[in-house]
Amino acid sequence: MLFSFLFLVWYYFHLFFGNMQTYLQSKTARSTEMRVKEREREHWMAFYTIPQHLKKRIREYRKDQWQENIGINMDNFLLSLPRDIRTDTKRYLCFGPGYSWSAIL
């Protein structure tokens, strides 16, 4: 009887801490992945010299998306942006910082 009780205590102890360890490892891996993706996004914006107002809009959108979906899809980064931010970013990338659409419209 004592042996059965000790075995159950040992079993549940290892079951609990084994699951806890798995959970912590997955949490650490996910946060590392998120930091890498954030760094890639910042490097992308720096490489194409995206202006501050577009960077701010992109960061705000990503923050809102993260809060809603708890995750970010970097595979289709530009395609996943809302149409207005994507259009402004593409205009900037194609025509450069000196080009103003407001003068035409």
From TrEMBL:
One of its GO terms (biological process) is monoatomic ion transmembrane transport. GO terms for cellular component: membrane. Residues 1-18 form the signal peptide. The keyword Signal applies. Keywords: Ion channel, Ion transport, Ligand-gated ion channel, Signal, Transport. It comes from the Eukaryota. This is Putative cyclic nucleotide-binding protein. It comes from Rosa chinensis (China rose).
